[in-house]
Amino acid sequence: xxxxxxxxxxxxxxxxxxxxxxxxxxxxxxxxxxxxxxxxxxxxxxxxxxxxxxxxxxxxxxxxxxxxxxxxxxxxxxxxxxxxxxxxxxxxxxxxxxxxxxxxxxxxxxxxxxxxxxxxxxxxxxxxxxxxxxxxxxxxxxxxxxxxxxxxxxxxxxxxxxxxxxxxxxxxxxxxxxxxxxxxxxxxxxxxxxxxxxxxxxxxxxxxxxxxxxxxxxxxxxxxxxxxxxxxxxxxxxxxxxxxxxxxxxxxxxxxxxxxxxxxxxxxxxxxxxxxxxxxxxxxxxxxxxxxxxxxxxxxxxxxxxxxxxxxxxxxxxxxxxxxxxxxxxxxxxxxxxxxxxxxxxxxxxxxxxxxxxxxxxxxxxxxxxxxxxxxxxxxxxxxxxxxxxxxxxxxxxxxxxxxxxxxxxxxxxxxxxxxxxxxxxxxxxxxxxxxxxxxxxxxxxxxxxxxxxxxxxxxxxxxxxxxxxxxxxxxxxxxxxxxxxxxxxxxxxxxxxxxxxxxxxxxxxxxxxxxxxxxxxxxxxxxxxxxxxxxxxxxxxxxxxxxxxxxxxxxxxxxxxxxxxxxxxxxxxxxxxxxxxxxxxxxxxxxxxxxxxxxxxxxxxxxxxxxxxxxxxxxxxxxxxxxxxxxxxxxxxxxxxxxxxxxxxxxxxxxxxxxx
Length: 661
Ligand SMILES: Nc1ncnc2c1ncn2[C@@H]1O[C@H](COP(=O)(O)OP(=O)(O)OP(=O)(O)O)[C@@H](O)[C@H]1O
Known about the structure:
Layout: H1 2-11, H2 17-30, H3 37-55, E1 60-61, H4 81-91, H5 99-102, E2 109-111, E3 121-124, E4 127-130, H6 131-149, H7 157-167, H8 177-186, E5 190-195, H9 201-218, E6 226-230, H10 233-248, H11 256-260, E7 267-268, H12 269-273, E8 294-297, H13 305-313, E9 320-325, H14 338-343, H15 352-362, E10 384-387, H16 398-407, H17 416-419, E11 423-427, H18 444-469, H19 475-485, E12 488-492, H20 501-514, E13 530-534, E14 548-553, E15 559-564, E16 570-573, E17 581-583, E18 586-588, H21 589-592, E19 597-603, H22 614-621, E20 624-632, H23 634-641, H24 651-659
Parallel strand pairs: 2-3, 5-9, 5-10, 6-7, 6-8, 8-9, 11-20, 12-18, 12-19, 19-20
Antiparallel strand pairs: 1-4, 3-4, 13-14, 13-17, 14-15, 15-16
Helix pairs in contact: 1-2, 1-4, 2-3, 6-13, 6-24, 8-9, 8-15, 9-10, 16-22, 18-19, 18-20
The structure holds adenosine-5'-triphosphate.
Adenosine-5'-triphosphate (ATP) binds near residues 195, 201, 203 and 249.
Organism: Testudinibacter aquarius
EC number: 5.6.2.3
Keywords: ATP-binding, DNA damage, DNA repair, DNA-binding, Exonuclease, Helicase, Hydrolase, Isomerase, Nuclease, Nucleotide-binding
C-alpha cells in the first residue's frame, strides 16, 4: 500500500510526520469507498506530496512538475531510490496529466471554486492545493484583480506634473524610474514598488506619500490616515528610520505641513492586525476593517500567503495598499510567494494608456523602451514599479556586482571575490596543507569550523570589549554596545548541522568563553553580553519573532534584555518576560531579512544542501552595507548560484484567468 511506503519515507526522514499523517487521513476517508487500488494510492500519494511541498513554500502542486517520475526529491538520494521505484509501481503507469481526471470521483477532493472544508484537497485551475492554500490564493487573486482595475482619483494633471517636477528635478536624460513609480502608484489604489538595495524605495514612497497629502490639501480634504508596517520588528524599525532620513533630505521648497503629515513610526503587521495567536481571530478582519486610508507594507516579499490574505481581508475597499520590497529576495518561510508572482507581470510592460498618462505627468516617454505586447496585458502590470538604479553602491562596488551576478545565476560570480576590495572569501581547506605532514587525520569539517571561529572571535572582539566596559543602562552606554554589536553579523544558510546556526552559536560562545571574552556557566541561560533573537510574537511586551536584543548586566548586578526601539533609542525588558529566544551570534539568512549590517559574513556548509539557493545568497549579500565576507567552497557556492528556488503558486495563473474578458 502507498501508505506503508510513506511510513518508511517518514522513518527515513525524507518526509515529515505531518506529511504522513495527512496521507493517513486521506486513506482513512477513502475506506468506505471501493476506489480502484492505483487511484486510491494516487490520492494518498498526492496528499503527502501536497503537504510536503506546502511545507517547502509552494502553495500548490502542478502535475507537470512530476512528469519525470520523481517524488519528494528522492531521485537524488541513492539509498531511498528503491522506495521511489515502489511508488512508481503502485501508480501503475498513471501519467501526471491524468491525475485530475482520475480523481474526479474522490469524495475528499474538491474541484474549482466549490470550497468545502470537508474536502481537504482542491483542484483549481489545473493545480492541486491544500484546502486552506487554495481558498487563500483564490481570495488574493479576486481582491487584487478588483483593486488593480480601480482607478484612484487624481488632481488636475498639469498641476500634479508641476508638483512632481519639484520633487524630482530632472538631472539627466535617463528615465527617472522613481518618478515613474510615484506617478504609477498615484493612479491606483493598489501598487507594488520593487527594487534592489539602495534603489531608493523609501525615498520613492516618501515622495508618493507627500504627493498624496498634497492632493488632499488641494482638494481641501482631511490628510490621509496612513499606516506603515513591516513583517518584523527590525524591519519596522528600519522603515521608520529610513522614512525619517528621506523626509530630512526633501527640498526646502516643500511645504513643511505636508512633511508633518507623513507618519514616522512603523509597526509590525501582526501588531497592526492585532494577531494574538495563530488560533484566535485577529482584531481586524472583514467585519472590522482597519481604520486607514493608506497602508504601506515594507519587505513585502517576506509575507506568506495566509498572512497576506488576512491583511487583504482586513482592508476596506477604499484603503490604498502599497507593497514595497525586493522581488529577488528569499520568499517567506511559510508557503507563498506573492511578491514574486505579482512581479511576473513586469514582463508585460505598461499599457499604452498608462504610458500616455505617465508622459503627461512625468514628461517621460516610455513607448520607445517598451518591447513587449502592450495591448493585451493584465491590469496589474500598470500597478507595478521596478526601480533599477542603485544609489547606495557606486559602480565599483563589489557588493553590487556580486549581488547582480548571483541574481543572474552567473557561474563565474565567484571571480568577484578576487577582484573587489569590499568582498572577502575564506575558502575552506579541503586537503591537508602540504607542510603539515605530522597530522595524518585531516578533518575538513573541523578545519572549516576552526577557520570560522578564528575570524569570528576577532570580529566580535570590539563588541565584547564594549560589553566588558558596560556599567549602566544609560542611553550612551547602550548606544556604545549596540553600535559595536551592529558592525558585523554572521549568517548561516542552515538551522541545523555542523554549519547551522544552532551549533555555530554553541561553538562560538564556547570559544569566546575559552578566550576569556565571555563569562557564563550555562550557555542556555542569559549571561552578560549574550545576543538573543526572539522566536515568538508577544504583544504584551511588544516583542516579535526576529527581534534582536542584548542581555546585559550593570555594575550593580541588575540584568535586563535591551532592544533598539527603532527611533534611535532603546527599551529594556526583564529577562523573565522575554518570549522564547535563542543565541544570536550567528543567525539564519531568513531571519536577517529586513536588517542590514556594515560587515555581513555568510557561512555555507562544506557540502551542497537543498536549502542553499540563489535567493538565499542574494539576500545574504544584500544585507551588507560596506563589506561582505564568505566562508565556503567554490563548489557549494556555484551549486547554490545555479539553483533558483522553485516555488509553485497559482496566483499568477488565477490573476490571468480573472482578467479574461
Ligand atoms: N534619486 C536619488 N538621487 C540621489 N540619491 C538617492 C536617490 N534615491 C535614493 N538616494 C539615496 O540612496 C540611499 C538609499 O535610498 P533609500 O533608503 O530610499 O533606498 P531603499 O531602496 O529604500 O534602500 P534599502 O535597500 O535600505 O531598503 C539614500 O541615502 C538616498 O538618499
